[in-house]
Amino acid sequence: MHKIFTGIFLFLTITLTAAPTTEKLNKALGSGDANTIAEYFGSSVDFSIPNNEGVYSKTQAKLILKTFFLKNKPTGFSVVHNGDSKNNSHYSIGNLTTTKGNFRTYILYKEVDKKVTILELKIEADE
Predict the structure, then answer these.
(1) Following DSSP, what letter does each residue of 27-95 receive, concatenated?
(2) Distance (Å, rounded) from C-alpha 7 to C-alpha 63?
(3) Quick one: pLDDT at residue 73?
(4) What stretch of H or E contains 112?
(5) Which of 4, 10, 54, 61 is the most buried (most CB within 10 A)?
(6) 3-state class of 18 per DSSP?
(7) Stated pTM of the model
(8) Computed from CA positions of residues 18, 24, 25, 26, in that sequence, does the dihedral angle turn out positive or negative?
(9) 8-43 confidence digits (pLDDT tens)
(10) What is the third-level CATH fold of 2-125?
(11) 63-84 pLDDT, tens per residue?
């Protein structure tokens, strides 16, 4: 009986403490909607895609992401794991499926006044 309560407690702790990314953001990733994703960027974002990484302005990151989506048309996105990080930030790890292959995504974000702001977005080839 103790194991059941421990398991339920751990499950609730993990699911309730990790603030998940918004459904709107997840849909935008799955459909390749760079404009909607860019709405979540702060004034600058630590951004990484295959063969291109750095800290970019919101506008630069949006253009790079649009180009990536043109070359790799998304067909779906699913969140694999949500968690908490340092400084009251959160992260989501997910799988992006495209016509050219699968990619692993990492999103580091903060929620301030109920608004999600992406601090870091990584899209890596899933090998």
Answers:
(1) HHHHHT-HHHHHTTEEEEEEEEETTEEEEEEHHHHHHHHHHHHHHS-EEEEEEEEEEE-STTEEEEEEE
(2) 45
(3) 96
(4) strand 101-112
(5) 61
(6) coil
(7) 0.79
(8) positive
(9) 443 433 333 344 557 888 999 999 999 999 999 989
(10) Nuclear Transport Factor 2; Chain: A, (3.10.450)
(11) 999 999 999 999 999 999 988 8
Residue 56: CB partners within 8 Å, gap ≥ 6? 44, 45, 47, 64
**Both structure tokens of 124:** 């890596």
Residue type, 72: N
- Tokens 């997910």 found at: 94
Q: How far apart are CA 14 and CA 26, in angstroms?
A: 20
Return the residue matching tokens 């702790």. Answer: 13
Is residue 29 a contact partner of residue 68, using CB atoms and an 8 Å limit? no
Tokens standing for 14? 């993990």
d(CA 24, CA 29): 9
The domain locations on the chain are 2-125
